[in-house]
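Subject: sequence -> structure tokens, single chain

Hey, anyone have a minute? Need the predicted structure for the following. Not urgent.
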Amino acid sequence: MKLKLIIFLYVFCILTVVILTCNIFAQTTFKENVTVGTQAGYSVITGYYSDSLKNGFYAGFFSIVPLSDLFMLTGVLVYNRFSLASSTNSSMQSFGITITPSVYYALPYTFTIYAGAGMSLQYYTLSAMKTDAYDSTTKTGFLMNAGIAKSFYERTLIIAECMYHVTELSHKNFQTLSFTVKAGYQFALHNPEYYISQEAKKNAVREQTVQKLFNTAMDYVQRKDHVHALKSFQQVLSLKPDHRESLQYVAAISKAKEQYDTAGMLMRQDKYFDALPLLSLSSQYIAEAHADYKKLQNKLRPQILTLQQKAIEAFNNKDYDACISIMNTVLLIDPDDTVAQGYIVRAKRIKETIQKLQ
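Reply:
Had a minute. Here:
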């Protein structure tokens, strides 16, 4: 029996070495580490054999190999011992190897939960101390498990697990419900240069995605589709929170929305000249504002002559600031008005000359 146990331990060690064909470096994250360690637990017998066998303790070794961001593979070598209910001098022992594919999910504070289902290979022995009777058999089984893991001290992993296992024994189902505590040590799957290169690849992919999203957002800006433009810029910021151009456009579009809302309120109060500059600013990003701005320009175009006369009168009275302000309003109505353009240039030059003489 001891020889068989030694053989099982030897096989398990060989399998672990094969799986761990990697360099051992400092810990990175759970998904990038192989964990090996020991485990101990308590098995509760359920079903047909619950009356003939007592619950038992078990111990063994385990390894965890993450395969991707969601899937991992667990291998276990475990020894169980169950006493016969009718005789404390007789016992049933088992040596088992289990392979369990599982899904896992990383939680905050270095917690990880997982659940899976797999297969087992069990070697059972039954011995009676007084009669020296001995029997053995090898069976396959099915198991389901779920657990929670917590990382400590950078490389140490503590796991609490619950497992249901069923196998055929003497043409009956042998069922156990086990509660396990595991302690393992984590080994990095690759060397530091690998993680640096992987991070560089991720950053390159992220930059490409950011650029595509930014180009899409700029297309929406050109079409004055502020809703989709804002959403695209926010997607850029979700990947790269410090993206300067996106931050600027988000601020500009948000301000344009406020200006358009204010302009709408002023127009409902017939304050068209107050709404005019707000519509002009918001029309750069908002299609509706652009359409309303064009309508208001057409509505106020007949008043251009009156505004020009007021501006010229202010110019003649040497009120150059008033002249510039009124002529700027004219340009908001008709950006190509040459009279307004000329008087603004003349008024600014005169103001600059007066300031130099003072």
